[in-house]
Amino acid sequence: MGMTSASTTRLGWALSCPLSLYVHIPFCIRKCPYCAFYSVTASPIDIEGYIDALGQELEIWTSLAGGKIHAQTLYIGGGTPTVLTVKQWEKLILTLERYVDFMPFLEASVEANPGSLCADHIKLWRSWRITRASLGAQSLDDGELQWLRRPHSAYDVADSLAALVASGLDVSVDLLFGLPGQTIPGWHRTIRDCLCFGVRHMSIYELTLEENTPWGENPPKGLTEGYPLYRFAQWYLPKKGFLHYEIASFSLPGHWCRHNIAYWQGENFLGIGASAWGYLDGYRYGNARDIKMYGQKVSHGELAIVDEELLPFKQAAMESAVLSLRTMWGVCSRAFTRKWGWKYYRHFRSTWDRLPDDCKATLHGRYAFSPKGFRIANSLWEEFL
Amino acid sequence: MNNIRNFCIIAHVDHGKSTLADRLLEYTNTIDSRRMREQFLDSMDIERERGITIKLVPVRMMYRAKDGQEYILNLIDTPGHVDFSYEVSRSLAACEGALLVVDASQGVEAQTLANAYLAVDQGLEIIPVINKIDLPSAQPDEVLRQIEEIIGLDASQALLVSAKEGIGIPEVLEAIVKRIPPPKGDVNAPLQALIFDSVYDNYRGVISYVRLVNGSVKKGQNILFLATRKEYEVEEVGFFTPFMSPAEEIQAGEVGYVIANVKALLEARVGDTITDASKPADKPLPGYKHIKPVVFCGLFPVDRDDFPRLREAIEKLQLNDSALTFEPETSEALGFGFRCGFLGLLHMDITVERLKREFDIELVATAPNVAYEVVLTDGSIIEAHRPSDFPEPTKIEEIREPYIKLTIFLPSDYVGKAMKLCQDRRGEFVSLDYITPERVRLVYNLPLAEFIIDFHDRLKSITRGYASIDYEHVGYRKSNLVKVDILIHGEPVDAFSFICHRDNAYKRALSVIKKLKELIPRQLFEVAIQASIGSRVIARENVKPLRKNVLAKCYGGDVTRKRKLLEKQKEGKEKMKMIGKVQIPQEAFLAFLQADEED
User: Which residue of B has its CA nearest to A248?
Assistant: First the structure.
């Protein structure tokens, strides 16, 4: 892209400041029919080459930054990072250590999938810097797992959860709702069992049929209306001490995911790997969604950016408001004004004031959604655009 | 004058009227075979496709009869549909005789009867013609019996023909000469010419088709239209051979055309009498009526930029169709368009079709409605074409609606269902006759408003197409009608209000608000949809407030995609119409405009 080099050169300062780092591992045992993230099934040779390519990309970023990248949070996601063998993980760790300076109080998360996660992974993570693991369980019901065509069983989930929690990592689970035949009692069982294992964080997603996925093209039948299930979680999890800190995320106080919060607060983050996205001082970029093309680019000393976006100020301000409103901390009037100015604060407020009262929870100059507001957030956000 | 015969052909749709006319033209060598084409007299494509006649085409044939004399036979074609029954009556008035064509396998149908009665009413000599006797299913004896028993005509002299095969055509011509009386009239009396049709020609202005009753007319003469009191100088007179050919003069008893530089059809109305301006006849010929449209609908261009073209097209059609009326109308859903008035459903269909075809304009036609008469408490009467024309209920003394007398011919097996349909449509039973043990004639008085909403389709479906219908307008009657307003979140929305009988108000209101409930998306707050008569709410539905709208995860890479989704979502909403605080999608207006009540 023509503007890439020019825009990225100007990012030196942002790159030299502490930021969040995302590393994408685009490999899976097999592709789930609903997943829109980029991943492929790959040979060991592909994986080795890909880790080398990650190093090459980091090399370019560090040269732009004028030194190592200072990461305050790290997130290694996928795909399925646990598809990498322990050997490959060691190589990945060495690569990261070469280019990244990890800050104190680092939050370092890794995504793990039951079935491919093994005890040696956990041992390695514990011996390195990993603090947090997010398990892609999706469900604790074998019927639902089969319907989702997940390559693991409910026993695998249980084993993985037990091992992760026992290791002392902060454990999160991803759960899907809105599946065929899903009932409140069944959903309750799944959530309760996860809590019993000692997870401190939970991300719940309604099954959405996204474009460019097999199910997006050929939607499966019989999906359950997700609303009551979501609402149940909103009622049940707070009773267990969990905070509904973001639309799709619940956690015990302090065990939220700082890395994800950085996205929603509009902070800078660097994304590396095929199809990874990053955001640096208003500039958003996306890497090539193809490991070959990605590898070729970075091996020639070029960034693999294929998408970029520099939003006009007003749009950026409103996007920032919408993202902040995903969280229970919402929009802070002072911080917003400092960053975007009075004009856009007033614009935000005039829209905010029009929203129905029962959707709002305002406290000490923070404008956030009430539980009901979270439920209809999509319609509320629209008002800000 | 003794050698002139003026006649017409009357028949039910599809009984072979146009084919018979073609054969007569051929046999008399009026048109050489090179220029002959199927259904010569139906000049419009739509007419040929639908097998109906809309515009009249008179034609003059020369025939040497068996008695050795040369006769002038003027065939005046009649439009075959009840919407045009006034035109039919005027063209019958221009004749002395009629060929009543009946299909040998189908027998007497509703329009056969109606047309035959009209002809009898005009005092015409009627010659029954049984057509299609070549068909294997032909039952001429049964049809002859029906002609005697149902219509009450002497069938002993009926002619058996097959227009398609050319069987019996000379006999038809002989019968015309022998049995139809020559015209009466006085060439020396003051001019009296009946206009039985007028057409508009882009170059020559209005061409009036006339039957001279008394006197004569020629080029240069000053003429007066008695109904409109307009005076013109005649530019040309002539005959139809069948193409217009100028002549010196037309005399009493003859059929021809008059061109007098008239610029608008409205000034040369069907049924009017032309007389000599210097020596006017003391009275017009009887039967002139000012015809008014009875069915209305909105016409809107699909592409809003087509509005000026639509206006032009309707204006052009109106030049040739004085029964068509229009006025501009704005719709919440459809933008700018016109509210047009028609003589009936067929007239409406044809007009819409012609606009689409001849002018290539894509159109949305709204569901048809009728014109109501509203008598106010101060005694004045206003005409209301749509709910918004209605004044407040307190100012209304009574509301009248147009009624029709509906005649249905159908196999006796379906009588129960047909009667149920008529009852459901507020019909009043008039009579039920068994024509034969298998065939029934059913007569109902029915509000026109109930008829124009898919009555015919419903009847066809419950009788499997075996019913034929005919109707005549029987004027306005007091009716217990109410205007039902629809309020959305407390705001009345004009586009949704409707008129209906008080007994049906609740049911219809409920179906309308249920439909709206489906179509209006959930909003951020609860929206009440109410139906009210005056200030009394008769039905209510609530659109529950939004509960949710896809909860999806959103991390780094999703942000752009998410925002685009939201923008798309928002765009969709911007297309909606804001009524007060509520967003209403176009589909809601559209669905309502085209709504057919499903039971």
Answer: B553
Contact A279 B547 (CB under 8 A): no
Contact A52, A87 (CB under 8 A): no
Residues 6+ apart with CB under 8 A from A178: A206, A207, A223, A224, A225, A226, A229
Nearest 10 degrees: CA dihedral of B253, B259, B265, B268? -40
Over residues B187-215, the mean pLDDT reads 88
Could you read off the pLDDT of B21-63 as tens digits, one per residue? 888 888 888 776 666 655 555 555 555 555 555 555 788 889 9
Cβ contact, residue pair A378, B573, below 8 Å = no
Distances (CA, A) of A147 to A135, A151, A220, A342: 19, 11, 10, 51
- Interface check for A226 against chain B (CB to CB < 8 A): the answer is yes
Least confident span in A173-187, B108-122, B370-384: B108-122
Residue of B nearest to A270 (CA): B556
pLDDT at B501: 87
All domains in chain B, ordered by first residue: 4-179 (3.40.50.300), 192-276 (2.40.30.10), 295-366 (3.30.70.870), 373-479 (3.30.70.240), 482-593 (3.30.70.2570)
The sign of the CA dihedral A60, A61, A65, A68 is negative
Out of B550, B553, B556, the one facing A203 most closely (by C-beta) is B553
Which of A136-145, A351-360, B71-80 is predicted most confidently? A136-145
ipTM surpasses cut 0.85 = no
DSSP A63-112: HHHTS-EEEEEEEEEES-GGGS-HHHHHHHHHHHHHHEEEEEEEEEEEEE
**B133: three-class secondary structure by DSSP:** coil
Q: What is the pTM of this model?
A: 0.60
Q: Is the pLDDT of residue A351 over 60?
A: yes
Q: Which two tokens stand for residue A134?
A: 């997010």
Average confidence (pLDDT) over B237-244 = 85
- Whether the CB of B546 is below 8 Å from some CB of chain A: the reply is yes
**How many percent of chain B have pLDDT more than 70?**
91
Q: What's the whole-number mean pLDDT along residues B506-515? A: 87
Residues A186-226 have pLDDT tens digits of 999 999 999 999 999 999 998 888 878 888 888 888 888 88
- Is B376 at the interface with chain A, CB within 8 A? no
- Mark which residues 136-165 of A lie under 8 Å from B by CB: none
Best CATH choice for the domain A4-264 from the list 3.30.1330.40, 3.30.70.20, 3.20.20.100, 3.80.30.20: 3.80.30.20
In CATH, what number does A314-385 get?
1.10.10
pLDDT of residue B550: 53
Amino acid at B594: Q
User: B526 to chain A nearest CA, in Å?
Assistant: 11
Provide the terminal-to-terminal Cα distance of chain B, rounded to the nearest Å.
61
Q: Kindly list the residues from chain A whose CB atom is less than 8 angstroms away from the CB atom of residue B569.
A: 378, 382
Say what the pLDDT of residue A286 is.
93
Note whether A53 contacts B: Cβ–Cβ < 8 A.
no
Q: With contact defined as beta carbons under 8 Å apart, do B396 and B480 qualify?
A: no
Lowest mean per-residue pLDDT among B116-130, B372-386, B413-427, B568-582: B568-582
Residue B367 CA: distances (Å) to CA of B34, B219, B294, B339, B569:
45, 48, 14, 11, 31
Distance from C-alpha of B342 to C-alpha of B325, rounded to nearest angstrom = 7
Of B552, B557, B563, the CB nearest to A205: B552
- Do A376 and B549 lie within an 8 Å CB cutoff? yes
Pick A247's closest partner by Cβ from B525, B551, B557.
B551
Delimit the CATH 1.10.10 region(s) of chain A: 314-385
Phi and psi for B101 in degrees, rounded to 5?
-90, 125
pLDDT band at A31 (very low <50, low <70, confident <90, very high): confident
